[in-house]
Amino acid sequence: DVKVTQSSRYLVKRTGEKVFLECVQDMDHENMFWYRQDPGLGLRLIYFSYDVKMKEKGDIPEGYSVSREKKERFSLILESASTNQTSMYLCASSSPGQQAGANVLTFGAGSRLTVL
Amino acid sequence: SQQGEEDPQALSIQEGENATMNCSYKTSINNLQWYRQNSGRGLVHLILIRSNEREKHSGRLRVTLDTSKKSSSLLITASRAADTASYFCATEKMEYGNKLVFGAGTILRVKS
């Protein structure tokens, strides 16, 4: 089974701290994504990457950055955490070859971040 | 930007009944997918339907797609308590660079 592992299930940080959320997938997927999930808003795409060292902004990239130095690892960075970044963060991966080019996502279990 | 919108926002039924959730979207798509999320966990892919398909089945799941109305429905037959979860539709279109855009979800509660 494809596995997407997010390093932390729960984090509590203080305003202004730098926060790293790590995501690792073990199925050699080319594509990786970071979403945040808030009640009533569904999932919103923060950043995504189609290859090592490349990144693309999603719908809400402000206040975030990402790093993809290795194919299996995609990190989300909050340079200076703020209270409005309190949320559930979901990492996902996919491969275009999975279902005839369709982008079917495999998600990690999520990281619930609270910024005080 | 939200492409899909699910309806209803919440649904409560008895075990054994059927559950129907609807999804509407705004622009043309390549495919539409449904995902399930158990409380506090990640999403799990359920089923994909392409724009040239009208209906698909997978076990107790039936998905329909009406591209003229820009809408889809997910039917879960003979529901079980274990089906209690949130259900999301997600749309993919080439212009988005194969990104998936998710709706806000339907919360389904199946009472035993």
Walkthrough of the structure:
The complex is a heterodimer of chains A (about 120) and B (about 110). Chain A has about 120 residues and is an all-beta fold. Chain A has no helices and twelve strands. Chain A has strands at about 5, 10-15, 20, 25, 30-40, 40-50, 55, 65-70, 75-80, 85-95, 105, 110-115. Chain A starts with a strand and ends with a strand. With about 110 residues, chain B is mainly β. Chain B is about 0% helix and about 55% strand. Chain B has no helices and eleven strands. In chain B, strands 2, 4, 5, 9, 10 and 11 form a six-stranded mixed β-sheet that branches. Chain B has a five-stranded antiparallel β-sheet with strand order 1-3-8-7-6, with no helix packed on it. In chain B, a hairpin with a 7-residue loop joins strand 9 (about 85-90) and strand 10. Chain B is globular. Classes of the chains: A mainly beta (about 120), B mainly beta (about 110). The interface of A and B includes residues 4, 31, 104 and 107 of A.
